[in-house]
Amino acid sequence: NGECVTKLNPDLQYQRLHRCGATLIHNRWLVTAAHCFKRYFIHLYQNSFHSLVIPIQRVIIHPAFNGTNMDHDVALLELAVPAPMSYTIQSVCLPSPVHHFLKNAECYIIGWGSMREGGSLTNLLQKAAVNIIEQTDCQQSYGNVLTPNMMCAGFMEGGRDTCLGDSGGPLTCRQPSGQWFIAGVTSWGHGCGRVGFPGVYTRVTSMRSWISTYLPF
């Protein structure tokens, strides 16, 4: 619908420590990476100083998730109580299974991960503009490890990328209509911002049918 936007990247925490990111796709549901998992709480940041802590009621890991090659690296989180929608807490749109994200789309990565390879986590939510990279171009970097359920974003010349701690967070893209869609879930990559090795994301359109078995829209 026309009201889907993204204002928030929830902070997935365990024992009060940041572990992964996640994306609100409904007031009771989030999407994140399957490889993140233990037992976590979601911190929803209402502004720079206040956060709302919501426990997770249910974790649903994709049944085909392969922890060796990271295929189907996606999980759904059901919150114990609905997240209160506000100016700063809103959900992002889910694409249809046949949605195509154009190479020149306006896309962003978001997270609390390291600012550079080998660096420490940041206390401030970061975002960066990235490009969708053609599958054939990314295949040249990663070879057959890259499956059709994965997509790449960033820059082949390196320098701007997701990093340690950003896993599970979103790759979001804005449509000409102004709607924001989640295109990918931060999954893996060779290092951070390395030349020739962009970030790899779980392709949400490939996961859409599975998501629809739990979210009827």
UniProtKB/TrEMBL annotation:
The protein's superkingdom reads Eukaryota
Q: Which GO terms describe its biological process?
A: proteolysis
Keywords per UniProt = Disulfide bond, Hydrolase, Protease, Serine protease
SUPFAM superfamilies per the record? Trypsin-like serine proteases
Cross-referenced Gene3D superfamilies, in alphabetical order?
Trypsin-like serine proteases
Listed Pfam families: Trypsin
Query: GO: which molecular function terms?
Result: serine-type endopeptidase activity
Q: Which residues form the Peptidase S1 domain?
A: 1-216
CDD domains given for it? Tryp_SPc
Name recorded for this polypeptide = Peptidase S1 domain-containing protein
Q: What lineage, starting at the top, does this entry show? A: Eukaryota, Metazoa, Chordata, Craniata, Vertebrata
